[in-house]
Design a protein that fits this description.
458 residues, mainly alpha, 0% strand
Amino acid sequence: MQNFVRFARRQAPLIVALAVITVAYAYLLRSVHRVPGTDDFTFAEHVEPFDSVIEWVAYRYETWSGRLLPESWLYLFTTAPLNLWRLTSLILVAAFVAALIAYARLLRPRTSPAADAAAALLAGALLFLMDAGVLRGGFTWVTGSMNYFWLVPFALIGFYPFARYAVRGRLPHPAINVVAGVAAVVAGCSAEQVGAVLVVLMVVVTIDRTIAARRTGMSLRGPLVLAGLSAATVAAFLVLMLAPGNSKRAVRDAQIWLPDFFTTPGPERFGYAVRFVTDGLVNHTGLALPMVWVLITLMLVRRRTWDGLSAAALGVSLTGLALTAIRPLESGAVFFNLHAVWKGVPDEPVPVLVLVLWLAVLLATALLPLALLRNRMGGFLTLLILGAYASLAAISLSASMYASGPRVMFVPTLFLLLAGYALFWRAFSVPERIGTAALALVLLIATTQYVFTVTTLP
């Protein structure tokens, strides 16, 4: 009993932080209800003729989608009591926060209960730095959450052995590797946006660590384990992508939403796709990009030595922040009207120049972590940001890209926020005064969005 008391006292900051997060999310999820007229109700009708989840998944695999786990969850949860969905979502939020605490420990030189508490609070706040419509579409919409947020904790857990080996040079406990392998397979076979980025990051880390091990003469045991995990995830992703239903859904989407989608010349479609992706990143990622720009700016300002690359990185961050600052102004509207429409783009110089400006800012933003850190971590964060862009670009391959709504921005936004989360722990430490102040500001903004979300739920 005394050991438990000592443990509780030592971990009090983390325990309090986790309690606050649990209460906040439990209240939010308790406020969620199924929305009439949406898939929350129509899926209950769709699954009724099928006697088992296997029959339903097999049918969907052949006719609509290769997303094995989300389809299984839709079958089970659309007809189950809503409290079961709420409990599962809360458990996955806990897994999300726990995984990010583990990642934060990899990024900090020292670990303490106060630092873990700060990592937990920042992890819990991330979702509320999103655009409100994106958050509703990917988290508080019952059907949407099973296709978007639910998969992110699996991806984070699945990638953890790779991150730990890349940072610390050693794998976690074998049991954790097994859990991570299962989680990675779940993420890989369940969502194109998540699975593709996860596979690329896994393969890149595996190749990098294998080359490093061969060059230094170190044991290949670690890289071989990573290679096995990568192979399993790649196989799961192929199961997802090779589903016959994917091509049938593409044809059906074109018939319903854009009948001339496949007959439109490729270069013209590419132009619409570029505008769609740029508009999504600029106008629908909430505070994800400004968070990256602010953190990069602060890290550069605090540097003791500068060179031309540092100056260029600062220029990019300040340009992004300046554009963000003029957004509320009527005169600034021209910078945010990116004409993300099908065959309705005006042939005028200003829209083209605005698009080119944002493309330059976005591509340079992806390179900022690499330019600033100039190490393996910087390269990984650059890949993560590029993965966020690519995960949205994948949506433009479907004729339903305009009809899908804000929910398709959930995964790209969260990838950008995860990059910001990593940069935060590179920029600050807690209880350092400026780090504590920065965390308090983020929590204040997230609390405002949380209150708005709870009070505006359908």
